[in-house]
Design brief:
The protein is of the alpha+beta class and 304 residues long. It is 45% helix and 18% strand. The protein has helices at 2-85, 90-101, 125-138, 157-172, 193-199, 221-225; strands at 118-119, 148-154, 180-185, 207-209, 212-218, 232-239, 243-245, 262-265, 285-288, 294-303.
Length: 304
């Protein structure tokens, strides 16, 4: 009698755990979809702002070009007038015209020279936006409320364009190419962050973890600091695509589940039965298995 009751209790416990896991997985998937929708809306707003800024830049550039053209035309007309009056000879006029036409661009990228990473100036709009987002993300942790960003680096435009083309091509192959998120890289303790910012992620950057071998990312910078080089944090754009919520540990996993592009996990420290806890949602991590599926955006230097 007691043996039969014990077996019934075990079966009930097993079925209850499975039902609980299924409910958690469903809830996390719904939460993930909501989060991605918010990210998509935010990304669209960012794109609109970027296009508006680019239009304004082109408008100003057009004004500068028109002004330079008018000045050039006025100078040529003045020289022609002097030639007609005989106050200037033809050779002198030709030399002046050639000097106008052979002005070289001062942009090092235009002349084919490699330039280093760009350091953002404190107070400029891009720096302030990164700082505000960073502070908003860490404000929930009391011990980090006094954190201060000292420097922010990004790739030069030429290198960034090359890596972004590779990244876009990879994202276009995802099951949902539009699901991309701004996340912090959970790695870099080996002093690799400067190299990653310069060259992008490589296959050798894949790290082993409780949920598999790949690249781990999180929305929580405080959580990312635990895996990063002291005083440095790498902010990235990550192609999430279709993400599967994963509950159980599998350290040998090296690819996403069939039909998915990435996985959504809990914190890497799991409980004694190998199932992670969903108690702290801000410590969820995304795991990708292709280095081309992420691109570094900014290397953030900070003091706590």
């Amino acid at each position: 009698m007691s043996s039969s009751l014990s077996d019934d209790i075990k079966r009930w416990r097993s079925s209850s755990v499975e039902a609980y896991q299924a409910q958690l997985s469903c809830l996390e998937r719904m939460r993930h979809e909501i989060m991605l929708l918010r990210t998509t809306v935010s990304s669209q707003e960012t794109t609109i702002d970027s296009l508006t800024t680019e239009i304004e830049r082109l408008r100003l550039s057009k004004g500068v070009c028109e002004r330079e053209f008018r000045e050039y035309r006025a100078q040529v007309r003045a020289m022609l007038s002097r030639l007609k009056s005989g106050s200037e000879n033809l050779e002198s006029a030709e030399n002046q015209i050639m000097s106008f036409a052979m002005l070289e661009s001062k942009d090092p990228d235009v002349n084919g020279h490699e330039v280093g990473n760009v350091v953002l100036r404190v107070g400029e709009e891009e720096f302030t936006t990164i700082e505000d987002d960073f502070r908003a993300a860490v404000c929930s942790t009391p011990s980090y409320r006094s954190i201060r960003i000292t420097t922010v680096e990004k790739q030069n435009a030429k290198k960034s364009s090359t890596l972004r083309n590779i990244y876009k091509a990879r994202c276009n192959a995802l099951r949902d190419p539009n699901l991309r998120m701004t996340l912090y890289y959970c790695g870099g303790k080996g002093g690799t962050l400067h190299r990653i910012l310069r060259d992008g992620f490589l296959a050798k950057d894949m790290v082993p973890g409780d949920f598999g071998v790949g690249l781990y990312f999180t929305q929580n910078p405080v959580r990312a600091m635990q895996y990063s080089e002291p005083g440095l944090l790498l902010q990235c754009e990550v192609g999430i695509g279709m993400a599967e919520s994963v509950l159980k540990v599998d350290q040998t996993r090296n690819r996403p589940p069939v039909g998915y592009d990435s996985i959504l996990t809990g914190e890497r420290d799991v409980d004694h039965i190998g199932i992670y806890s969903h108690q702290r949602h801000n410590e969820l991590q995304y795991l990708i298995f292709d280095s081309k599926q992420a691109i570094p955006s900014y290397l953030i230097y900070f003091n706590v």
